[in-house]
Amino acid sequence: MDNEDEDFYRKLPKVELHAHLNGSVSGQTVEKLIGRKPQLNVEHSMTAIGKGQRRTLDECFQVFKAIHQLVDSEEDILMVAKDVIREFAADGVRYLELRSTPREEKNTGLTKRRYIETVITAIQQCKNEGVDIDVRLLVAIDRRNGTEVAMETVKLAEEFLVSSDGLVLGLDMSGDPKVGHAKDLLPALQRAKNSGLKLSLHLSEVPEQLEESGILLNLPPDRIGHGTFLHPEVGGSQSLVDKVLKNNIPLELCLTSNIKGKTVPCYSKHHFKYWYQLGHPIVICTDDKGVFCTDLSQEYQLAASTFGLSHQAVWKLSEKAIDCIFASETVKKQLKQKWTDVASGIAVTH
Ligand SMILES: CC(C)=CCNc1ncnc2c1ncn2[C@@H]1O[C@H](COP(=O)(O)O)[C@@H](O)[C@H]1O
């Protein structure tokens, strides 16, 4: 990327809708965490997948185990969440929906409720410090943990939906796609939907999920994470695609994550192309910017260089992402105004 190009992508106002908190921890923050817990013997190579490296999904999920060991107290979560928010802001992200799985840690006394409260405190502190970014939270269900935990998580999320002054907006379903079946989580997801929580579901991240995706799309979710294997060209089906189109469900697309996790063979084969050509709502996201050593500016630039998008087309893409956020119409309006204000300062006509 030349300097001028880099400047454009950095200044481009961006919306990030698919960022797992503990996957977004940067190298610098990991350094601080390792300093706090040297006895764990965690090394940098265990928390990130560097340039040119690729791992299987199983290996990728091992990385989260190492990070979770490092982040196990309120103090850690507060630091991690504030660092992640500041880094996204420095990358030009103006609206961020973070997602995170509430964890209980017996040895530090951390509870799931305190976990969520601490992330909310981090969001509020960043706001009070004037960090230029609007941050919201999606409470995540790890599919590994089954029916009961999912229901418990939904109940907790419902409480925060009411009490967090609009900061908690919805629910994410994520975790190793090869573990568990989303059928078991349906009652919890249905309940979440009925109580007004927005749903972003990881769907068809691996090829073997045709049946599961069909069931989940009947809910329907408000957004789809990845959706890598939905379309017929990669073993999905037209009926899955039709469900997505009929309900106009936006897709959160994470290019580098899919390449490094080996679910997509190379950037040019990324399903971005399929959905972009259909004119369907898609949002470029990072997934786990720390683990995959990327940022949102870089992801936009990669999509543009791979698929031949002009600056004007990139601008349109980032602006259209505003329509996919879970916050209110008023917030959307404010963001659109922000985009208009920034447009006059950078070389783009639209
Ligand atoms: C391994 C790989 C290729 C990752 C990219 N795709 C992903 N697919 C499903 N769940 C994920 C992914 N990345 C992160 N997560 C979820 O986010 C968690 C980490 O963030 P947190 O603790 O919820 O704050 C992981 O334990 C996992 O449950």
TrEMBL record:
Database matches in Gene3D superfamilies: Metal-dependent hydrolases
Top-rank taxon, per record: Eukaryota
Example of a GO MF term: adenosine deaminase activity
Alphabetical UniProt keywords: Hydrolase, Metal-binding, Nucleotide metabolism, Zinc
SUPFAM superfamilies: Metallo-dependent hydrolases
One example of a Gene Ontology biological process annotation: inosine biosynthetic process
InterPro entries: A_deaminase_dom, Ado/ade_deaminase, Metal_Hydrolase
Reaction it catalyzes: N(6)-methyl-AMP + H2O + H(+) = IMP + methylamine
UniProt xrefs under CDD domains: ADA_AMPD (cd00443)
Cofactor(s) the protein needs: Zn(2+)
Domain Adenosine deaminase intervals: 13-338
Quaternary organization: Monomer.
Protein family (similarity comment): Belongs to the metallo-dependent hydrolases superfamily. Adenosine and AMP deaminases family.
Annotated protein name in UniProt: Adenosine deaminase domain-containing protein
Taxonomic source organism: Channa striata (Snakehead murrel)
